[in-house]
Amino acid sequence: MKEAQKRYKKSRPVHPFLYRTIRPFREFMRIEASGGMLLLACLLLALIWVNLPIGWTYDAFWGTHLSLGIGSVVIDEPLGFWINDFLMAVFFFLIGLEIKRELLIGWLSSFEQAVLPVIAAAGGMLVPALIYSVFNPPGSPGSAGWAIPMATDIAICLGILGLFGDRIPTPTKVFLTTLAIADDLGGILVIALFYSHGILLVPLALSAGFVVFMAILNRLGVRMRLPYLLIGIALWCSLFFAGIHPTLAGVLLALTIPATTKIDYGEFREISGQLHERLEKIVSCSPEEVDSKAFQNTTHTLEKACRDVEAPLQRIEVMLAPWVAFLIVPLFALANAGVRLEVSVFELFSQPVTLGIIFGLVVGKPVGVLSSLWLAEKTGRIGIPEVMNRDLILGIALLTGVGFTISLFIAGLSFIPGVVLASAKAGILIASLISGSLGFLALRSAIAPANDKQSEDVIQVAQTVSS
Predict the structure, then answer these.
(1) pLDDT tens string 21-48
(2) How many CA atoms lie within 13 A of 306 on its CB side?
């Protein structure tokens, strides 16, 4: 029977949808899931550090000033600023690359595929903002934080999904990933439109010039990374002096990165075949007689062909993803998750900001996602694909309430350091913990019946084969 089960498992056909979607997301999900574990570790470290007797060193360390500049142009800001505004621009740069990739070759490239997670993301942003505004109406001390419960932390969500391994269908993971990316795009627009103040026109015009120049480089076919990097840094500085949050530079830079290959797959196959034949002739003789110069030239040509068949966007995304997942986001959590547990639970839950965030993330996000999907299906024009496991959608909707990274980021933009900001951070941590736990339990409950049914099907097939 075991042999029959193995044969059945190996012979199960792969759905075309899975084949199309699993390849571009496999590495992305692996990195994000692993980074989510490190992110949680840094969160705990920050909470422990700030509540120790030496907790004063937490603010002192992140408040240490660091000056960078050229000539008379100097930016003197605390260490926390360089993490939240400079390194997080790299984080948003990666998000921008992911969004561009999705628009070109991913789910967002097809209206039929993109509309569902985009609609779910829109509902998951609108409802939490409305719930938060009920607790913190316009004019109240916490009203500026209305966008805090709108975000979804993709790293932690994929980390939770990673705990289930292959038991979570790939289409479900892809749906959550696309929803979170669309959610991030909405968060970026909110930051750019509502959290930039005192805009200066001259630096803003200079920023526009930098973006146009990078777009021209793209059109001219410039594929080297250095020009884009240097202009991107200049764009960050001009946006900073213009009064627009400089993390927007990361997204604008990402949209100008070339996404096309220099040669197509057919040309690469032809070139690599010719080079393989040439290498066979070079190394066919004894090691002492090998023409080392010809061998080196051939391998360099093959290396160039490998670069030309890969888009700069893809190369940069693959190179940057581990740095963002394992360094920048955990460092951001370490610098921003420090919340002093000095107040009682009653006092904490009596704060309108805390309640607005908790109800916005824990209740508003899943309600917004599920209601928008329900309304989309009621139109009769949009439906959930059959390959998606409907029993898992509730768990996915609950997971969207984990709004850690960007929620903390928006909280830092909304409030100055003090009681309100501390209440916002506490609300984010509590809501993310509740949403993550509820999502995990819902997913485990949804997977159990599916696994039991799959086991029964396997046994039935095995018995048929044995007979």
Answers:
(1) 444 445 555 555 566 678 888 888 988 9
(2) 8
Instruction: Locate 120 and state its tokens.
Output: 């779910």
Cα–Cα distance for residue pair 354/209, rounded to 1 Å: 42
241 in a domain, yes or no? no
Look at residue 108 in the predicted model and tell me its pLDDT: 65
Q: What contacts 282, CB < 8 A, 6 or more positions away? A: 290, 291, 294, 295, 298
Residue 466 CB contacts under 8 Å (≥ 6 apart), including other chains: 1, 4
- Residues with Cβ within 8 Å of 204's Cβ and at least 6 positions away in sequence, in order, are 238, 239, 242, 243, 244
Q: How many whole angstroms separate alpha carbon 32 and alpha carbon 47?
A: 22
Number of domains in the chain: 1
CATH number for position 383: 1.20.1530.10
CB of 151 closer than 8 Å to CB of 182: no
Instruction: Let me know if residue 217 belongs to a domain.
Output: no
Radius of gyration of the chain (CA): 25
Give Dmax (Cα) for the chain: 85
pTM of the model as a whole:
0.72
pLDDT winner (highest mean) among 145-149, 167-171, 173-177, 306-310: 145-149
The Cα–Cα gap between 31 and 259 comes to: 21
DSSP state of 68: E
Question: Which residues, 6+ apart, have CB-to-CB distance to 335 below 8 Å?
Answer: 46, 62, 79, 80, 83, 84
Contacts for 388 with CB less than 8 Å, ≥ 6 apart: 169, 171, 172, 175
